Amino acid sequence: MKNPNETVSEIDITSEKMIRSILHDIIPDAAFYGEETEQSRSDQLTWVVDPIDGTTNYLKGIDLWSVSIALLEKHLPIVSCIVRPAVRETFTAVKGMGAFHNGKKLKKVTKKDLGSALIGTGMPFRTPESYDAFFPCAREVLEGSLDIRRMGSAAIDLAYVGADILQGFWEIDLQPYDVAAALLIMEETGCICTDATGGNYDMFSSRTCVAGHPGVHEKLVSITGKHYKEFI
Asked: Which one of 72, 200, 203, 204 is most buried, counting C-beta atoms within 10 A?
């Protein structure tokens, strides 16, 4: 246990060391920002890595966990990859060249209504002080949408928004390594990502994240903005 309700495994640390070594060979001068072993940033190139996003799922034998890798240039993702090794599902993106799901190029998302949207979220286990925001918000989203899903890996959730498997998502206190790769996948498919009130989202400083397809995102923000004002 590294924090209450938050686990880390030997595999997280070993995986991150292996990935860091491989990426260093590819671009020796790039900084490395990982979850477990090193967090440095560069104004030029930075690798952002989550060796296992969804560690609790991994340890419990649930296949909803992923490996997430992004390359940032001037703090914005330009290349990304999210892999679910247990089921061999892969998402990739290159800035300006589109995003891909299992090698097939993803289409641009279209405008949708919240009522027909499947929405992802994450439980605020790191932030007990946000419980009073999360649960009323979840009720309102549930009442206005098709349903809510909680995968246990934000990288999967956000990649699924880009792939039109989910149509929206919100969560509090995500880390850069949770979102960096998926941000590019969503950008390349035309999804919108902001903070809970619709302001600019910065993976290194924003506490809240709301993402979705056009139409869905605006409705989500109208809900999350009421409940998460104090966390902006």
From this structure: 72
133-160 residue pLDDT tens: 999 999 999 999 999 999 999 999 999 9
pTM higher than 0.70, yes or no? Answer: yes
**Per-residue 3-state assignment (H helix, E strand, C coil) for the chain:** CCECCECCCHHHHHHHHHHHHHHHHHCCCCEEEECCCCECCCCCEEEEEEEEECHHHHHHCCCCCEEEEEEEECCEEEEEEEEECCCCEEEEEECCCEEEECCEECCCCCCCCHHHCEEEECCCCCCHHHHHHHHHHHHHHHHHCCEEECCCCHHHHHHHHHCCCCCEEEEECCCHHHHHHHHHHHHHHCCEEECCCCCECCCCCCCEEEEECCCHHHHHHHHHHHHCHHHC
- CA dist 62 and 86 (Å) reads 9
**Quick check: 31 pLDDT over 60?**
yes
Q: What is the model's pLDDT at position 3?
A: 55
**How far is the C-alpha of 93 from the C-alpha of 189, rounded, in Å?**
10
